[in-house]
Amino acid sequence: MSLKSIDIEVFGRFIRVNCPDKNSSDLYYLANILNKRLEDLKEKTGVSNIEQLIFITALNICYELEIEKHKSVHCIKHIKSRMLVLNEMIDSSLNSK
What is the CATH number of the domain that holds 71? Predict the structure, then answer.
């Protein structure tokens, strides 16, 4: 997998990053999402300090990620329990014949 050096713009600043060739369009897309979030936060809070906006946004993203992790763990536990019930039903059905 070859790396490509690309420039992305985040909140008016250009940052050179290395990423796999096949992921460059994803990185541009995500940079646009980040820019939108920063603009929304700036508008909502009135904060104009770029560093502060970036840290607040990073904290918000980390919080959202943790929420999604907990949801995933809950879903996996639910799926596992349902699979056990189905497995028991199949075993019971096969044993009764």
Answer: 3.30.160.880
- Asked if 37 and 28 count as a contact pair (C-beta separation under 8 A), the reply is no
What is the tens place of the pLDDT at every residue in 84-94?
A: 999 999 998 88
Helix 24-45 / helix 50-95 crossing angle, nearest 10 deg: 120
pTM of the model: 0.74
Residue-number span of the structural domain to which 49 is assigned: 4-96
> Residue 16 is encoded by which pair of tokens?
């050179």
Q: CA angle 84-73-87, nearest 5°?
A: 10
Cα–Cα distance measured from residue 20 to residue 43, given in angstroms and rounded to the nearest whole number: 34
Q: Which residues contact 21 (CB under 8 A, 6 or more apart)?
A: 1, 2, 3, 4
Q: What is the DSSP letter of 22?
A: G
Residue 11: phi and psi, rounded to 5, are 55, 45
